[in-house]
């Protein structure tokens, strides 16, 4: 194969391997965008005569403020109103309300419970940036309320929640974007097309990693007062428990609120690796996790997971918190060649011919980045165009959630953990 550049390819049909992955872009991430008619065109374009979209934020912590920042910066150009906010902690709620007012000139309505926010008719779409365990339950509530949703990753931390979320989004036909934002990077879109072209041959192995050198997610909680927190709402869906300010601020350290490194960091690279390789759902996982340095965590600070995918390749995920070299990367190994992809939105990726296949690459092949809408813009564009196929739709969120859930279970149990895609259930052993 001569030295060439791979750009945007013709879009093909989506995979039908699993019945519940209807209209999915997961197999290659570029299937024809589905569309539908809302109950009224007014809802699709915006609930007001001006066509402005009413946006609300559920979860006003650091990540929520990061995600909504483009909406505040571009609210006039994008024809948006940030109409409401919700957070269980008054401190974050008031700070974000002041930020919205400064940016837009209007103070949003504020709520401690998302159910009250979802009842507002002026809310067309919500951004969900709450702790991981609550992502899917709130997404289900948003879908039932007819609100489009941008939900942070991982979409779910339990299989039953992932099932409920994909069912609700599909049934109520809302436009959903999941926060694996590197799917909206032009270099990874080009990399997916290069793999789909057959340049690498049969993919046999995908290596992924995401490392840090700090005790991530430890936060100061000295300013957390019981009277400022709706603790019962924070723990919604969990058994009653005494107020604990450390759990509230450092929830990522605890098993009841997250699935650990494979969910907090791994979903980014696992999502990209399985997307690039063209197979969304792993058949089974094995893994090991240990407390090596930061032993005050409930979750381990080092994890190694292996996933086998039905298409016929193994994906490895590696993560540690005591050494960040290299920070993160994805490598694809095929029978004809190899492509290394640093976890970056700007690098240009090059495939080289060190496979053993008969069509081994004879010269490097460049995956030339393509122009692609940003993650937030893509979601808003799809809402206005009545298209459910976002860059990271609910099926993409389902797949990365299942991978992280069975990977965490494998590390925890020390046993092989299978996923029955037809029955949509996890089987340990």
The CATH C-level class name of the largest domain = Alpha Beta
Order of secondary-structure elements: EHEHEHEHEHEHEHEHHHHEEEEEEEHHEE
**Count of alpha and pi helical runs:** 13
Number of domains: 2
Helix content: 25-40%
Structure classification: alpha/beta
Low-confidence stretches are 1-45
Q: What is the β-strand count?
A: 17
Whole-Å distance between the termini?
Answer: 44 Å
Biggest pleated-sheet summary: 11 strands, mixed
Shape: globular
The CATH topology of the largest domain: Rossmann fold
State the strand order across the main sheet: 1-15-14-13-12-8-11-10-9-16-17
| CATH homologous superfamily classification of the largest domain | NAD(P)-binding Rossmann-like Domain
Summarize the structure.
Helix content is 30%, strand content 20%. The chain contains 13 helices and 17 strands. A hairpin with a 3-residue loop joins strand 12 (328-334) and strand 13 (338-342).
What does this molecule look like?
The protein has 429 residues and is α/β, with parallel strands linked by helices. It folds into two domains: 12-183 and 376-393, NAD(P)-binding Rossmann-like Domain (Rossmann fold, 3-Layer(aba) Sandwich), CATH 3.40.50.720; 186-217 and 252-371 and 402-428, Dihydrodipicolinate Reductase, domain 2. The chain is built from 13 helices and 17 strands. The strands form two sheets. Strands 1-15-14-13-12-8-11-10-9-16-17 form an eleven-stranded mixed beta sheet. A six-stranded parallel beta sheet has the order 4-3-2-5-6-7, sandwiched between helices. A hairpin with a 4-residue loop joins strand 16 and strand 17 (425-428). The chain starts with a strand and ends with a strand. Mean pLDDT is 89; it is low at 1-45.
